[in-house]
Specification:
There is one protein chain. By secondary structure, the chain is α+β, with helices and mostly antiparallel strands. About 30% of the residues lie in helices and about 25% in strands. The strands form six sheets. Strands 11, 14, 17, 18, 19, 20 and 21 form a seven-stranded mixed beta sheet that branches. A hairpin with a 2-residue loop joins strand 15 and strand 16. Helix 2 packs parallel to helix 4. The chain starts with a strand and ends with a helix. About 15% of the residues have low confidence.
């Protein structure tokens, strides 16, 4: 029996997707729920799982093509699954070991499932099944797990050429084989141009990068953007985190970071100045009586902004847990489209990359965004004395069409006051 594989129903706001890569080729056995292909939309990468076990018979759409909901992608022969499974079971799978340090084979009932980001790492480093299985947790391998597993093997990564080599693994009860001699350095993937000639490479943008470019240009062309700055002294927050971080993590199972303080302080400012939480719709101003805070996350595919729904109802642990979960999903490529939709206000932290000062661009149709930056010890005057304090510059970019400088400055001062004296957020003063 032949089973047709079609593009899954795309979200209402997504018209089409790009077929990034096929994970199986015609003639290969496919397990039930195994990923066949990756589809890239404007925001996320979607997997196309196989509804049945069988053999991939025919591919109807090639990688790089644009597809729509319901379009035929491939055909699977389900009737041949039993024979294929039997043949696969009869053929002994060669054990894979690392050149630098042999790894014992890991027996699994089913091959672990790799997310799109993890699959790219496995393909680039040419990892064997054993190494991939050793990184699996709960039947799924994330990019971070895979990178950690490779790092634990102490195998130097090369830009091209095999990093791992298939060698017979030692049988149980026998001494491990002697360490093989080191491989010669792999040749560079791109040879240097002769005579110092210069070359250009043209690489298509990913769908996500195209969408980011479109949104940024749209924001700058449709909004009257302006940025105001302030600086904060993080001494009290640092002391608070140092005092309670161990007990906080022990009780809640998540680390106490800085972002929860900034989210709480921003919500306090949004309550006092509702225009910062509003949006322009034609000739109307839409006031949001809820606080859905977007937190920017940097991934290999580009910047994503997962949204913490009703963030005002979350405690510090809930905010930290939500941010950590969204960040992991975004980097693994498993985040859902609805997690990135909406939002009334955003926060971005360029300080993690060393940025000292910047002017963030508003995430339209929102009207403002708060930018965090690098914390640095700087000389400041406190009670007439020059002392060194951990200081951070804050930036608020806002749509001047509805937000005046007065509201923007007062909002930023409120955030500053709450962060320099965290007790204000507890007392609401």
């Amino acid at each position: 029996m032949n089973v047709e594989i079609r593009v899954p129903q795309l979200p209402e706001s997504v018209a089409d997707a790009t077929l990034v890569a096929w994970r199986k080729q015609p003639g290969e056995a496919v397990g039930r729920d195994e990923n066949l292909a990756d589809l890239e939309t404007d925001k996320v990468v979607l997997e196309v799982p196989s509804p049945v076990a069988g053999v991939l018979q025919d591919i109807r759409v090639q990688a790089g093509a644009t597809v729509r909901s319901g379009e035929l992608l491939a055909v699977i022969s389900a009737a041949a699954s039993a024979g294929a499974s039997a043949s696969a079971a009869a053929a002994p799978a060669p054990a894979v070991a690392v050149v630098a340090a042999p790894v014992a084979a890991v027996a699994t009932a089913a091959a672990p499932k790799l997310g799109p980001a993890a699959q790219r790492v496995a393909d680039e480093l040419r990892l064997g099944d054993t190494v991939i299985a050793s990184a699996a947790r709960g039947g799924r391998v994330s990019k971070s797990d895979l990178v950690a597993a490779v790092g634990a093997l102490s195998v130097p990564a090369a830009p091209a050429g095999p990093v791992l080599k298939a060698v017979p693994a030692p049988s149980q009860g026998t001494a491990p084989a002697a360490k093989p001699t080191a491989l010669a350095p792999a040749p560079a993937s791109t040879a240097a141009a002769p005579g110092g000639a210069r070359a250009d490479r043209r690489v298509p943008m990913t769908r996500l990068r195209q969408r980011i470019a479109e949104r940024l240009v749209q924001a700058q062309s449709t909004q009257a953007l302006l940025t105001t700055f302030n600086e904060i002294d993080l001494t009290n927050i640092n002391e608070l985190r140092a005092r309670y971080k161990d007990s906080f993590e022990k009780q809640h199972g998540v680390k106490l970071g800085f972002m929860s303080f900034f989210v709480k302080a921003a919500i306090e400012g949004l309550r006092r100045y509702p225009l910062i939480n509003a949006a322009v719709s034609g000739t109307d101003i839409v006031y949001h009586d809820y606080y859905d805070i977007g937190v920017a996350v940097s991934t290999e595919r580009g910047l994503m902004v997962p949204v913490l729904r009703d963030a005002d109802a979350l405690d510090f642990a809930g905010i930290e847990r939500g941010i950590a979960t969204y960040a992991q999903r975004a980097r693994e490529g498993t985040i859902a489209l609805e997690d990135l939709s909406g939002g009334t206000f955003s926060i971005t932290n360029g300080g993690v990359f060393g940025s000292l000062l910047s002017t963030p661009i508003v995430n339209a149709p929102q009207s403002a965004i708060l930018g965090m930056h690098k914390t640095m010890q700087r000389a400041v005057v406190v009670d007439g004395q020059v002392v060194a304090r951990p200081m951070m510059y804050l930036a608020l970019s806002y749509d001047h069409r509805i937000i005046d400088g007065k509201e923007a400055v007062q909002f930023l001062v409120t955030v500053k006051d709450c962060l320099e004296d965290p007790g204000r957020m507890l007392l609401g003063v």
